[in-house]
Structure formats: C-alpha cells, structure tokens
Specification:
mainly alpha, Multidrug-efflux Transporter Regulator, Chain: A, Domain 2, 2 domains, two-stranded antiparallel sheet, 2 strands, elongated
Length: about 140
C-alpha cells in the first residue's frame, strides 16, 4: 500500500534536507509531487525511492548530470548498462586520482613534520617548505 508523506517527513525518511528536495524538484531530478488542496507537496513511495537514490549517488560523489543520466537509465530498465558502467568507471578514476593526490599530500606533510627540529621559526622546516614550493617532495599535491 502506497503512502503519501509531507516534505518534512520525506526529508526525515530520506536524509535529504527540505531545501535540497525543493532544489531537486526545481532542476528536474525529482518530478513535481502531487499537492494537497492547500498546495502542500505530498511524496509517494516512488518519490522516496528516487530521493534515496539521489542521496546515495551524491554521497558517492556523483555530479548532478551523472545522476540525471543514471536516473534516466533507472527509469528504463531494458537499456544496456554500459552508460552506467562508464559513469561509475569515470567516478572511480576521479577517486583514484584524488587518492594519489592525498597520498602525495600526506607524504609532503610527513616530510615537513619529520624535518622539524622543534627549534626556532628561523630554522623551521614547515615554514621553509611552505615558503618555497621547490623544496616540496612532490610537484603537485
């Protein structure tokens, strides 16, 4: 049996804030829900499922346009999943690049901290490296 919930209840159940729900409706990720005679939004189970899908995709770092495409695929289950795979692979590549950048950053910070003699600022490795990027272990971090 389908139930209808208010936007406040939808936010509570889906974990998506009320202004974000309105935004998703405005940009077309979420279809305009039914409204009461008092013009209050009422969300059905399908809306809740879609909100949960969007929230989870956002938590995984997918951009809005990728989510729009994934929702379109979800709405037509007979399509090939090649597009979904490509979107996920692209996101994975972004995550791997970010991990590499974070590892370089970690190495750089460890080097700065290890090089610190705990003396005066004039001989502080942290200050020295921050002042001269050429003294960094990695060119990009």
């Amino acid at each position: 049996m389908s139930k209808s919930v208010s936007i406040k209840q939808a936010a509570g159940e889906s974990g998506v804030k009320v202004p974000t729900i309105r935004y998703y409706e405005e940009i077309g990720l979420l279809p305009a829900p039914a409204r009461t005679s008092g013009n209050r939004r009422m969300f059905e189970d399908s809306d809740m499922h879609r909100l949960t899908f969007i929230r989870h995709a956002r938590e995984l770092g997918f951009e809005i346009e990728a989510i729009r495409t994934l929702l379109s695929l979800q709405d037509n289950l007979n399509q090939s999943c090649a597009t979904a795979d490509a979107i996920a692979k692209a996101r994975l590549a972004e995550v791997n690049q970010r991990i590499r950048s974070l590892m370089a950053l970690k190495t750089e910070l460890e080097s700065m901290v290890e090089g610190c003699t705990h003396g005066k600022v004039g001989s502080c490795r942290v200050i020295e490296v921050l002042a001269d990027h050429g003294k960094c272990v990695h060119e990009s971090h």
